[in-house]
Amino acid sequence: MKDLVGSFGRHKGLKILSLLLAVCLWFVVGTEEPTETTLAVPLEMINLPHGMMITSEIPPAIQVRVMGPGSVIRKLTQTRLAQTIDLNGYKQGPHFISLTPKNFNFPRGVQVLRVQPNPLTLYLAVTMVRTLHIDPVLDGHPPEGYEIIGVKARPSQVSIKGPRAEIERLKSISTMPLDVSQVTTPITLAAELDFKNFHLALMKQTPILVDINVSPKILTRTFPGVAVEASPHKARLRTSRVAVTVQGPMLQVKDLTAGDLKATVDTDNLGPGRHQLPVSVSLPSGITLARVQPGTVSAWIEKSP
Fold this sequence. Notes:
mainly beta, RNA Polymerase Alpha Subunit, Chain A, domain 2, 5 helices, disordered N terminus
């Protein structure tokens, strides 16, 4: 014992105290009830080879089941953990990475019981960049009486990066569906590109806008047998009814009746006798005249008594 104490050299008291504290700590930790818990350890991929990307689904963290002294486990759960996977030298294709207790730098006394998922499956693919046309996708149809007459994406094309096998077969890239079921006027909508079935990304983050030109549907209707009146002076008309064809917004035209149309011939400043007069039609606002058949009628104006 004397030889052991003598080996401490200077500051013997302090060294002996440190040794006693270490022995006490070992005794306390060594006699603690073992505790089990599961740690969520984030994954970090480093040194991804140039011109390649990971196309397999990688969990953001692995679940590591550990057992050890309670105080050590509690401290471990409060520590920022991370598991690094070095991809330096990896080639194209699938890779299966097994994780063993040696992969984890946990404090002494902590035992790794289980790692999930294990092994990790990584698939590396060669990437390429390509410029693709944007194809806007519309969901639904405008309300009754309206129609889409033009759709344009801004920008019209974008540069996309992704696995060569995926990009090479693409002729364009679609947007996520844009709801137009309530659109009745021209509108510009923000859009996102549909990457859900691909491993693609924009080379440059650019807002995608889609201009949608919506206008009322134009309906053409013909009303046969519209009565013709002479005005302001009375006249005997050889043809008293005409067929009137009108055009206009569907919601207006579909509810029109022949009674909403007024056909007349102008007899102002005309002398007695027979006259061939053009037929005029008075229409509601927003409705245009397409055709009148016949376009003229024969009118007989009698002499004043």
